[in-house]
Amino acid sequence: MKQKREFKKKIKQRFPYRFSLRDYVKLILKIMYLYCGYIQVRNYILKQQKKSLITVLLYHRVNDNLRDTITVCTDTFQKQMEYLKKNYNVISVRELLNRMKEGRNSDRAVVITFDDCYRDNYENAVPILQMYQLPACFFISSSMVGTEKAFKHDLEIIGHGLPNLKCEDIVEMDKNDFEIGSHTISHPRLSECNEETLCKEIFNSKKQLEEMIGKEILYFSFPHGKQSDFSEYARDVVKKAKYECNFSAYGGLNSPRDNVFDIKRIGIPESPSLTFFKAWIEGWKIT
Q1: What is the pLDDT of residues 150-190, one digit of tens each?
Q2: Domains, the chain, ordered by start
Q3: Rounded Cα distance, 53 and 104, in Å
Q4: Torsion over CA: 60, 259, 234, 135 (sign)
Q5: How do beta strands 71-72 and 61-62 pair?
Q6: Cα(222)–Cα(216) distance, integer angstroms
Q7: Rounded distance between C-alpha atoms, residue 254 and residue 236, angstroms
Q8: Is 0.85 topped by the overall pTM?
Q9: What is the C-alpha radius of gyration for the chain, rounded to an integer number of angstroms?
Q10: Using alpha carbons only, what angle is made at residue 55 by residues 49 and 57, rounded to the nearest 5 degrees?
Q11: Most-buried pick from 22, 118, 123, 273 (CB within 10 A)?
Q12: Positive or negative CA dihedral for 265, 267, 272, 276?
């Protein structure tokens, strides 16, 4: 029985996404959500108040060889970037912080971010981002750079590690105006770390990445990123390390008046449907 389950899991990872009856039901619900008038009225009112919402998207992998909850295939990613270019103002993390510090935002904006240290970000995502001239920020676990180390979640889900970014990849990304942020040294669940380890993960990852690119690292994102994965103490350490902001991963949209040390992000799973993508951008919480 266990072998059968494992076989089905591998098949699902390897073969392209297919719509099920459940997906079609979700599609209908998302269409209703998008076009019932609520979103249009909400966005109009907030724009008049200069409090337009900002969606921060969270990607991990852009890869055609895997199918799991943190991988998007290259064709899907390209279609999503084309849609963003045509329909939203895609801004950098620096511009996001400027707007949040002012507490004002007059247009519906989107920020693109990546977590971990996957080389497919450089090989697959960056060329597509450059094609559409879109900014993005890459949050990197510093000890993974240039190594064959595997993330724990990859060992658990797919049974092996994946190629990691090299130092020269990160340097080139920085030179091409992509933003670089810290994602700790080794990607631990910070809520399970003692104070000494937590401080090392937050402070030293900053130092290591700064040595790589010769530039100050000012942005941080919590590994795993759920509310149970970090604490107020961890957030205070991020501030003491002189980061300017912190990103989580528990979903939700951001107001320009929100706390810059609790910026919410929406994880984007694989789906060929742009309707699904539109709904996630506008705050639909069910994947």
Answers
A1: 999 999 988 999 999 999 999 999 999 999 999 999 999 99
A2: 2-281 (3.20.20.370)
A3: 10
A4: positive
A5: parallel
A6: 18
A7: 21
A8: yes
A9: 19
A10: 170
A11: 118
A12: negative
